[in-house]
Amino acid sequence: MTITLCGTDCHKLFEEAERSRIVCASSGFEATVEYPKPLGKGYRREMQLRPGLGLFIFDHVASRDLRITSSDREHSIELGFVIAGQWKWNHRSWNDHTSLSPGTHFLFGSGICPGGTSEHSAHEHRLLLTIEFESQLLGTLVTGQPELLPECLEPLIGDANRLTYFCTGTTTIAMQSVLQHILNCPYEGLTKRMYLEGKVLELMALQFSQLLMDKKPRSLSDTRSLRSDEIDRIHQAQMLLGQNLDSPPSVLDLARQVGVNRRKLNEGFRQMLGTTPFGYVRDRRLEQARQLLSDPDISIEQVAARVGYANRGNFAAAFRKKFGINPKAFQLQRRKEI
C-alpha cells in the first residue's frame, strides 16, 4: 500500500524527530537526524558551511511505497547528485515526469519551484547529495563580486514571479571522485568544515563547467550527438547491467540485446555516463562493496569475493581509487558511526 503525505506533514515529522532527540550526531555546523518511522529508515545530514551555503545528504530506504506532494514554493539555487536509487518527481506547472538514475545530477535555479509529487519505491536504497545556496552568494562565489555573473549562469537567478531554471546532466568521473571524498571525509570539527566547503566549491565548478561546455557548439572532431532512440537504448543497457552485476553480459552481447552496435554502445556510455560498460559495472560493484562494508559481520575478504575480486589487494586498490579511502579504514569508520 502506498503512503501519501504532503510536504508539510513530512516537515512536521522531522521537527518531531528533532524534538524527540532522534539525532545521530550534532556539532556547531552539522546535524544528522534519523528519518521518522512513517517515512522509513535512514538519515538526513545537514551541514551549514557558511552563511547561505548548505550541504545535505539524504540516505533513505522507504518501508512502503511513498508519495509526497508539495505546493509551489520559493526555491534557492540547488545542485543535486543522485548516488544510489531512482529519484522520481512530477511538477504540475511543467507537466513532465522526471526520473533520475545513479550517475546523474540536476541543477535548480532560484525563483518559484512548482508543486508536484515525488515518488519513493519501497525497500530501495536511495542516496542523494545536494548543495543549496542563496542567489546573492552566486556572484561572489563565481566571480568574487556579487553583481557580476557570466551570461550563461544568469538564468539561475530568478525571482518570486518566475519559475526556477532546471536542467540535468551526467555525473562525470571527476564529479564522482569529489562526491566520494565528501561522503568519506576523514576530518572533524573546523578542519572538516573547511575541507567540505572546498569540495563543495569544486563540485560546483565541475557542474558549471559542464553547463558552459553544453552551450558551446560541437566541433567536427567531437563525438556525434546521440539520437533520442539511441539514448533510450543506452539507458536500457545501463539497466540490464545494473540487474546483472554478478554475471554481466559481454559488451557485444549487451549491444545485441539493446539493438545497437558495439561502437555505438561504448560511445553512448562515454557520452552519457563518462565511462565504459565495463567501468560502469566496476563502479556499481564498488558501490555495492561500500554498502556491504557497513555490515560489521562481513569480512573484507568476503566483500571482495562477493563483488568479483579474487585478490584482496586488487579490491583494496580499486576501492581506494574510487572512494579515496582503504576498505579497512572505511569499515572501521562505519563501525564507529553505528
TrEMBL record:
This is Helix-turn-helix transcriptional regulator. GO terms for molecular function: DNA-binding transcription factor activity; sequence-specific DNA binding. The keyword 4Fe-4S does not apply. PROSITE patterns: HTH_ARAC_FAMILY_1, HTH_ARAC_FAMILY_2. Residues 235-333 form the HTH araC/xylS-type domain. PANTHER family: REGULATORY PROTEIN PCHR. InterPro entries: Homeodomain-like_sf, HTH_AraC, HTH_AraC-typ_CS, PchR_regulatory_protein, Tscrpt_reg_AraC-type_HTH.
